[in-house]
Amino acid sequence: MEENKKTSAHAIGTAALITGIITFVLAVIPCVGIIAIIPGIITIVLAVIGLTQASGDNSPLALLISSLVIGIVAFLISFSQIFVTTRLVRHTDKFPREIREAIKDIQDDVFKNLEESKVNIRIESNGEVVEIKAGTEDKEIKLKQLEELEKSDKTKNDTVPDK
Amino acid sequence: MSFTEHFFSAFRKETYITVNSSLAVIILMIFVYFAAFSPAKNNYPVTCIHEKLTGEPCVSCGLSHSFSLIIKGRITEAYKWNSYGMRIFLFFLGQLIFRVVFSYYYLAAQSIRKQLVIYDITGSAFLFLLSFYPFIDYLF
Questions:
Q1: CB–CB of A31 and B49 under 8 A?
Q2: Of B23, B56, B60, Cβ closest to residue A92
Q3: Tell me, what's the ipTM?
Q4: Which residue in A8, A153, B112, B132 has a CA-CA distance of 20 to 30 Å to A138?
Q5: How far off is chain B from A55, nearest CA to CA, in Å?
């Protein structure tokens, strides 16, 4: 019975050490480091269970303690990546790329639709009708009219006469 | 007793051999994983969390592509995907060799077991720092 307990604590310690080493390597890779939080917790839990079992009998603790230390360090490295990501998000105008791209797409669509559209506003009140027309088709005609008016106005003297 | 029988007996009894064998199998699985996924199809299940959140690629972006290309022997292309890919790949390859060689000597030369474990820890830690320094530097 005592031998079985020792073997169990030893097996748990070995499993914790292997998980801890994998977690440690995974934790220092920026792309996937955050994911290492989960195996980091598993390592710590395994090491703590092993230590609890080993403390009852006189089985060696070195393996379990080293697993616990590796697990805690790996977990902390992995956890620190949350702050790195937060810092990066702040650095890049607070908005993630996808949101920025979506806003830009919407802006472009709105401007394009406005340019192509013809807006007619008609207001009727007490028999009086006011109609406002706007659109790209009228734009050129109005520009021509403005140019013609400017040309004709050049001949006139619009200065205020001296008293 | 043959070496294989001796190895399986030690696998059950010796923690060092159990850990070494497990890590060797995991490293081999990593190599198989990167050989299975194609860089052309871009069908890797893991995507960069940093790039998703910030829109800017991090220092380890393109590492999966780089690994796959190294395994397929396309070294120049691998450097283009991630310049640190080769040193990380060499770390894992080195670790695979370390696990096999150290396990062999651990079983063969019982008088120098303690020294072997110390050499292994020191060598692996040095190799780890050398290979992963750009990532550690980027994180902190």
A1: yes
A2: B56
A3: 0.73
A4: A153
A5: 19
